[in-house]
């Protein structure tokens, strides 16, 4: 009996040993595959595309966001410079080599794990956004249990550990390997990616890794083959191919986006060939309309809607909108056959937009005018779709790779932000049951939930360690805390907001993220610089209509009126002048104001910027240094917007899958003559209340507002003084006041 049990035991151990060997290879291979997936998923940017993308100004001269901004140098760069080498070239080549070696290793191990293990791994793949994810510890634990993997076998051979390390560092960039901390090197490399000098060209190669040219013998084709060999999504390979073809497209009139942000769109067919087809569509849409009452019920299923007393199929409306937009956009070619006047067709289209997307005619028309017929439809559709959930890593407390690992261990599906333009952003995929706003890492302040577009104004402002900065309308503090992190908790960030209710959230975030260089104030921004000035940099992320974030707050579709836009534009102009006037004319490295909104309307953006240029001739627009975004409008409805307006940037949900945003940066020079009295509020001092929430906040704040009671305060102060004296072993009854001291001196004498 005993002998039988021993034999059984031996058999189990033997099996466990074999399974463990299998399991280790699988883990290494899976992580390596994950890394190669991410790498391959990085956008493909040919040299041509990158050259197109590089703006003449951003980050020139060693990666300075603005002339005058100190160059941020990583340790490696400094050491290399001290040695008189080109800092990044060899590193880039080395890293590319490392990756390609890693890639080869991946293939080897991938092949090695054929059979049972692979079938299991395949079962466990999570497919998110066309990217296959399979590395999380629960899965690994599960596989361990299934395969009888013993804990001793967790000890990996050097080669395997090496493979894992390579895979990890390929997944999360080198910057993540740097130690966090004040003024640390994590920001040194922060913007490496965006710099335009020679070294940075190599950084770009390095970062995106997929080049149409050969890098150390690994071609794009090889990588695609490798993907296919690893059984990875063909869709992705196709996407990579699409990026390639985009790279070679010279005819793009938009500023090129980082590939991956620029959804590959099919080339429009030549208009001439479309006339007949389009007219057929228009006809079909009309006859659909006529027959709609009979068949819409069946066809539409849940998509019909009561309109003017009759049921209308939303699919028909959508089709009609597309056709009308195309005809309007190519009126010269198609208009003659439209069968109605241009203005009637336009009116019909706007009415359809209101019906289909749920806007008031006023706002539908306003946004329609910003984009024009065809792009407007894309904008409206994108504004009905949620943006990816993103988080920003708080580099004051952790590193991106550590946070990613911790969250993956909890079962969160994530990946670095698409496009590689931020090294502190992570995209979180839905599907995991982990509440991303309540993990221990969240509570410990290792990250903040923040929309990717909200990183942009801070990147553009580029605050430096030891500076004195103002965030004029800061609540709830996404940008304040990012500024604080970029400044490494040094210098000062004055975070102001006029809403008392929202200040609570700001304070909470500042405390949770451990921002010790932040001071919070609660005044109307138009009180600056009267109450305080002399800042190196000022961020004005202005109160706005929120037309860029309709996917988050659809109430904007119906609650904004003409008057709101008028008041907002007025307030934004006043705040911007105050922001400019708050900048020190003697700031050594700074002297910048970033004006941003999460709105896409012209009166809240270019019109405000243009007003400031007129009223403050000592400021000029400079490049935002941001790697993507469309240039601001030079003119609109016959109005010209002043010099440098094309340096401002517009971001759209339908183009870059980020919230709609506007970002501009002013360099503030020395005023030629005395600036008139700081623009004093012509609106009531009360913050502008734009919606019910603001009104509630204001009402609560009024209720909460403490009535000061001097007598009670004096009692509390005295009590606390006594306690402190007692703790220090002093006589708590001794009178420490001036009068008491005087009395004691007189008594001693
Ligand atoms: C777009 S939000 C700011 C978001 C913030 N920058 C962030 O990233 O978390 C605009 C803010 O402006 C504030 N605000 C409105 N009127 C203001 C004024 N006159 N002065 C200062 N802040 C104002 C609002 O309370 C609101 O919090």
Description:
It contains 29 helices and 19 strands. With 749 residues, the chain is α+β, with helices and mostly antiparallel strands. The chain folds into five domains: 12-247, no CATH class; 272-358; 389-449, Alpha-Beta Plaits; 452-703, Rossmann fold (3-Layer(aba) Sandwich); 710-748, no CATH class. The strands form five sheets. Strands 9, 10, 11, 12, 13, 14, 15, 18 and 19 form a nine-stranded mixed β-sheet that branches. The protein has a four-stranded antiparallel β-sheet with strand order 6-7-5-8, covered by helices on one side. A two-stranded antiparallel ribbon has the order 1-2. Helix 21 (478-486) links the parallel strand 9 (468-471) and strand 10 (492-496). The longest helix has 40 residues, at 2-41. The relative contact order is 0.09. S-adenosylmethionine binds next to helix 21. InterPro entries: MeTrfase_RsmB-F_NOP2_cat, MeTrfase_RsmB-F_NOP2_dom, Nop2p, RCMT, RCMT_NOP2, RsmB-like_ferredoxin, RsmB/NOL1/NOP2-like_CS, SAM-dependent_MTases_sf.
